Structure formats: structure tokens, C-alpha cells
Amino acid sequence: MTPEQVIPAAIVAVILILVIAGVVRAAGRRRGANEQAFGAGGVTKVPLGTTGVAQTPLAPSGVVYLLGEQWTARSRTGVAIPIGGGVRVVDHDGLTLIVDGQPARMPATE
After folding, report:
1. SS3 label, residue 103
2. Nearest-CA neighbor of 80 among 51, 57, 96?
3. pLDDT tens for residues 47-80?
4. Is the whole-model pTM more than 0.85?
5. If you write DSSP's letter for every residue of 29-88 in order, what string do you get?
6. Which end of the chain is more exposed for a tag (fewer CB within 10 A), N or C?
7. Contact assessment for residue 61 and residue 84, using Cβ atoms and an 8 Å cutoff
8. Residue 38: pLDDT above 60?
9. Angle ∠(4,18,28) on CA atoms, nearest 5
10. What angle do CA 57, 62, 63 make, to 5 degrees?
11. Is pLDDT at 107 greater than 60 in this prediction?
């Protein structure tokens, strides 16, 4: 390769590297069909009857933990549910779960 060919070849190589890097980066950003959705596993609704635990006091709104994720929730009756209190999903209001308090599940004893 002559000295006159080195600079154009280097420019072509740099452009090629930048194009390949851009394609790889764009492919890494490609999202699945449910990745824009919110909630457990990309779903926007929790099955009615699902149980969980209050992570913050629900007085009447707070945060509950169920299906492996934290969700915003509101007590259906407005009665406060303490931290650690059991909850059961009875309805949805958008992405806010409507819950009833229930006795927290006790670990099984032998």
C-alpha cells in the first residue's frame, strides 16, 4: 500500500467501525413488545384475589409487595392497613391496585 492510499483506507476503516458500532448499539436498544408496559413481567393488571404485604402504611394509599414487585395500592374501604399487613387485590384503578386488608400470612410451623 502506498502512502497516498493509507489515509483514505484509514478514513474508510473508521467510518466502517462507526457504522458497525451504531448498528450494534441500536440492536441492543431494541425492546420487546411488553417492555413499555408497567408492572410485574410487563403486565398492567394483577389477577384479582392475588395476595401480598403492605410495604408502607396504606392510609388509604401506599405501596404493597406482590408478584415479586412493588405496586401502588389503595385501601378499598379507606381503613388504614399497617406495614406488614396482608392485602388482597379486589380491583384496579389504572396501575393502582385496590386492596382489602387481610390477616398477614403466618409461616408454617411444624
Report:
1. coil
2. 57
3. 999 999 999 999 989 999 988 889 999 999 988 9
4. no
5. H---TTTTS-SGGG-S---TT-EEEESS-BSSEEEEEETTEEEEEEESS---B-TT-EEE
6. C
7. no
8. no
9. 160
10. 100
11. no
Where do we find the cell 410487563?
42
DSSP letter for 110, please.
Answer: -
CATH superfamily, with its number, for domain 40-102 = Nucleic acid-binding proteins (2.40.50.140)
Instruction: Say what the pLDDT of residue 36 is.
Output: 52
Q: Residue count of the chain, please give it.
A: 110
pLDDT over threshold 80, residue 91: yes
Q: Provide the 3-class DSSP secondary structure of residue 10.
A: helix
